[in-house]
Amino acid sequence: MTSNNEKSFTALLPELTLQEKVSLLSGNSFNTTPGIARLGVPQIKVADSINGIRPSAIDGDMTTACFPSTTCLASTWDAALLGRMGEQLAHEAKLKSAQVVLGPTINIHRDPRAGRNFECFSEDPLLSGQLAGAIVNGIQKHGVGACPKHFVCNDSETMRHFYNVNESPDSRTLREIYLAAWQHLFRVSDPVGIMSAYNKVNGTFCGENQPLLTDILRQTWGYRGIVMSDWFATHSTAEPVKAGLDLEMPFPIFRGGRLLKEVESGAVTEAEIDQRVIKMLELRDRTKSCHKDEPEKSEVNAETSQVARELASGGIVLLKNEKNTLPLSTTDAIKVAVIGEFAHEPVVTGGGSASCKPQYTQRPFEVLQHALSEHGTVRYAPGVRTRRIIPVAPTEQLTAKDGRHGVDIAYFNNDNPSAAILTESQASASVFMLGEFKPGLRVPGSRLELTTTLTPSTTGAHTLAVRCTGAFTLSVNNDPILTRSTQAVLTTEQFLFNPTVYETRAAPFPMTAGQPYHITLTMHSRTELMPHGEPTPYSAALCFEEHDDEPAAIQAAADLAEASDVSIVFCGRSAQYESEGFDLEEMRLPANQAALVRAVAAAGKRTLLVLYAGNPIDVSEVVDEVDAVVLAHFPGQEGGKALGEVLTGRVNPSGRLATSWWKRLEDAPSFGHFPAVKGPEGVEISYAEGLEVGYRCRDVTARVRWPFGFGLSYTEFEYDGLRVEVDEKSTPPVLRCSVGVTNAGQREGREVVQLYVGALEGGAVWRPERELKAFTKILLQPGERRQVELEVDLKVACSYWDEDEKAWKLQAGRYAVRVGDCQQEVGVTATSVWNHL
């Protein structure tokens, strides 16, 4: 047989049988596609995500290098740094034996409640596309493929499998905002794959939408990689093949035998199959160097950790800084109060497929203790709890029959309900199965019994809860205290991403410290398998949390603040709030966190608020009470050190917001049109705000607390001498800008130079006052001045989408060019229309 190095995989197309061709067009597991052993065609293994390459096992314990969330990456505005990150992701993918990284995600931050915004870059398409492209190039530099997602308009999680974005692909809204992010991506990178979205656009599911996949993506833009479905996102057999969907994931539900029958009937031709197969073979050619069958592993790498820390510190945004609160002095004998559970158990990532188990975490409290240990004093108060779900009962408070910490589990089939088919002991009070079950266990038709002895450490009315996929009974000392007679109503993705759907809590249960309580949890399997070929969950968890005296906790924090020189309060959200699979209901700071901040600020001398979040937070209740605000995002496994370096001034904050922070939810342009709603024609999302997404909206200044592109520094930057020229004779015509930037302060600092363009003269259509067209990030020493040059394709800088002509139009007229606080007007004389941009 010809070796892979001597013959490309695409050359093997004539040697494939029809059955083999069809097999290549579907996955054969959650993260692999089959190969053809007889011809040496390897399988393809895919892995989520750019925030950390996940191992194959969904419920495994293997860790991975955890990078900051994508909103943090975007806030760096640093394409070169993101390119370095991409190279580290390629290294991590090879450790997991993966050939394709599923990401980055470039959906638009349309609304501040969207659950997956933390996994996306920005409200701006150019920033999203260019930064995503930098990561793609870094990943693919080392032979691993990248698969950006989700094409297109998956900007909400609520009913994402069903909703229709009621917009034509030729509308200005889609062309200038949502599709534009992908165009900017393709201008700077050539990903091996892209993933289509769950939702419909203009009435057709994205995975079978020929105007999107064939007409725009392949024919107009010239995209040459594969298109894969999102998981369980296909809805038919012939239509996706004809529209240009190459790969159905994760299993052959509408393909496999169904697709063979469609070919036999003539509904799909073998030539159409070949079009899809050739793409799957090209994918193997483009990732040829990475096909190694080796055990997955996790290795802490110094270079990877360094890049992760640079990303976290480069993306942290200083939003407010009064009374010289920051940076904290490392030479004075200051007393610092560190308050909030996130200071001790930091948030490193959001939830869903972009989450991962970090190799390690760094507690900000301990980092600050070390940084200030020579002169300062750092003390801690936990403050209030932030919860959507009750945690799994701690192993150290559970005792199994053999005396070890943990639980005993017995499994029974219904046809012999008194004889266990399997008994086992384990440390965790949680059982997790998805599609694959214990040997001999029947689903439907079985039950489990989890038993343990629980010993609380305090006396009080504690919380017991159960997360079960089937009907269950929870007993304490043989007395039932909580039952559900029916199985949980949930989808597979709700099971994976939104456990609140199937959590049931008992009334507060009085318990005495040190007294053992015998616990029995009995759960029955689901009565039928999940529909549409989705794997069926079989899961049970015993959850427990001891009573917390919230008023006393707040008072203790205030007392600590009163005895300190500066108080740092850690608040915000966690993966329980921001995740794939559901959207937030509001954007306000949780009420108990707001009460904590107000009490600390009232008692303390200076108060700093540190926020963990992927989405904007309404801080109206506390922003005037605190002296400084720092946005940490979800900063990954190096986030603790990065935050400590920024707070102590070792690193000058240089992050700039990639998304507008609205004063209130009602100020967001999408308010009233988000999320999806059921109407007479099904589930729909209306993009009623049109082009007025984020900073592009009218009256934006009055509506935002902190605008797009905003971020403070420990130094000052001054702009001067903006020069702009339009060269319409070059190929292509360009807009050239030159501006002087000076570091006028006393500290080294990085500045993000942002170029905006806006049409000055009234035209046939409304256009935003300004739009981002170029950016760069520079490092300046104190007193240093640099002349920064920015050049933009004139069509990119000044054109708009003409819905009547279904083409991009560049109108003659006057345009305003803004860089920093400098502005200049320029004239464009050429008038042109074209289809490609």
UniProtKB/TrEMBL annotation:
The family line of this record is: Belongs to the glycosyl hydrolase 3 family.
- Enumerate the GO terms in the molecular function aspect: beta-glucosidase activity
Pathway it acts in?
A: Glycan metabolism; cellulose degradation
Q: What is this protein called?
A: beta-glucosidase
User: What SUPFAM superfamilies does the database record attribute to this sequence?
Assistant: (Trans)glycosidases, Anthrax protective antigen, Beta-D-glucan exohydrolase, C-terminal domain
- The residues that cross the membrane are none
Q: Name one GO biological process term.
A: polysaccharide catabolic process
